[in-house]
UniProtKB/TrEMBL annotation:
Taxonomic classification: Bacteria, Pseudomonadati, Bacteroidota, Flavobacteriia, Flavobacteriales
Protein name (database record): Fibronectin type-III domain-containing protein
InterPro entries associated with the record: FN3_dom, FN3_sf, Ig-like_fold
SUPFAM superfamilies linked to this entry: Fibronectin type III (SSF49265)
Domain of life: Bacteria
Residue ranges annotated for the Fibronectin type-III domain, each copy included: 28-126
Span of the signal peptide: 1-17
Entry keywords, A to Z: Signal
Keyword match Ribosomal protein: no
Length: 226
């Protein structure tokens, strides 16, 4: 009787080990780097060969790519979305438009990487000599973040596909969700310091103007003071 019980126990052990095994966790692919169009590029042709680095997948899954092209830096006004199986895609866009693009890698199980950085470019119209600058790019404070202190530095980046242009900025700042009060006008620097009060939420935007008078209206950003 003892021998029978011993054999049953030995045969049961491999079954117990097999039942205790786990499926490997599905990890997201790596973030890609944008190659072309480069940041703030002026594109003569509106048929553009987009290019980015290959993503790798920790689980060796097959990777595809989601290309998003928008008419605003925040990518809420999407002009075109396209899926590609390689790290290149040719896409035809409108002429005379400022675009912003990014790429997200997706594995075969649907797991997405973090989106790439966002690059801006411009498709030039026929015979056009001056082009409006790109909308200002936020540096700090992070949009909808909470900050400490009673003095906050607002910082942004400006860019123009007409590389010879000189840019100036109008900065709107206040407690209204759509800021209408100009804090600074016609400045050439890309940061200012503002005085704030604890417990309040502030809104701001930066309009960018080139030396020919062409203007880009900025996105509204906000932050709350602890």
């Amino acid at each position: 009787m003892r021998k029978v019980i011993k054999k049953v126990a030995l045969f049961s052990l491999p079954l117990f080990v097999a039942c205790g095994s786990k499926e490997p966790v599905n990890e997201a692919p790596t973030v890609v780097n944008l190659v072309y169009p480069t940041q703030n590029l002026l594109c003569i042709d509106n048929s553009i060969s987009f290019d980015w680095s290959d993503a790798t997948d920790p689980n060796k899954d097959k990777v595809s790519y989601k290309v998003e092209i928008a008419k605003n830096r925040e990518l809420t006004n999407i002009a075109k979305t396209q899926t590609a199986n390689t790290s290149q895609a040719t896409i035809i866009l409108e002429k005379d438009v400022a675009y912003y693009w990014r790429v997200t890698a997706i594995d075969s199980k649907g797991k997405e990487s973090e989106p790439s950085s966002v690059f801006a470019f411009y498709t030039k119209a026929e015979g056009e000599s001056n082009i409006a600058p790109f909308t200002a790019e936020l540096v700090k404070p992070v949009d909808e973040s909470a900050v400490d202190g009673l003095a906050v530095t607002l910082e942004w980046k400006g860019a123009d596909s007409n590389t010879g242009d000189t840019l100036t900025y109008d900065v709107y700042f206040g407690e209204d969700a759509i800021p209408t009060t100009i804090k600074e006008e016609g400045i050439s620097v890309t940061s200012i310091q503002v005085t704030v009060e604890s417990g309040k939420t502030y809104y701001w935007k930066v309009n960018t103007i080139d030396n020919a008078g062409a203007k880009s209206i900025g996105q509204v950003w906000s932050f709350k003071v602890n």
